[in-house]
Amino acid sequence: MNGQVPVDQALAAYIRFYQELRPETVVRLDRLAVPDVHFKDPFNDFRSRDRMKAVFTAMFDVLEQPRFIVRDHAVSEQTAYLRWGFVFRRKGQPRPSTIEGMSEVRFDLAGQVTSHIDHWDAAEQFYEKLPVLGWVLRKIKAYMAH
C-alpha cells in the first residue's frame, strides 16, 4: 500500500474527532488535517488548520454544549460526504437548536484532510431565527412561494 491510509480508516478518525469535539480535543486536528487545509462554511472560507482550530475554540466560547452528530456518510475515492446535525444552545437561551447539513471532506493519500466544505442553508437554519431579519426573510420566502 506504499504508506497509503485507506479513506475509510481516515474518515472514521475524522468522524470520531467531530463527535467527540471538546475544547481540550481541538488540538487533535493537528494529526488529522494538513496545515493549509481548506475550510469553508456559510461564514468562513480560508486555508489554515490553525484558523480552523480557532473557529472550533470560539464556538465553545459562544455556545453551550455544542456537538456534532454524524448521521450518515458515503465515500467516493478520496472524498467523503457526511450528513450531520449540529446541536447547540446559545448562552442564555433555554432551548437547544439544531442545524442540519452536509460536509464534503477530501483526504490526501496519507489520510489527512485537505479540504472540508460545509453545505447548509444559513438563511433557513440561522438567519430566519433572528428577530427582525428572520421576519423579513420569512416574508420574502412566502412571497416567492406563490
UniProtKB/TrEMBL annotation:
Pfam hit, one: SnoaL_2
Origin: domain of life: Bacteria
Family matches, as Gene3D superfamilies: 3.10.450.50
Stretches assigned to the SnoaL-like domain: 16-116
Full protein name: Nuclear transport factor 2 family protein
Higher taxonomy: Bacteria, Pseudomonadati, Pseudomonadota, Alphaproteobacteria, Rhodospirillales
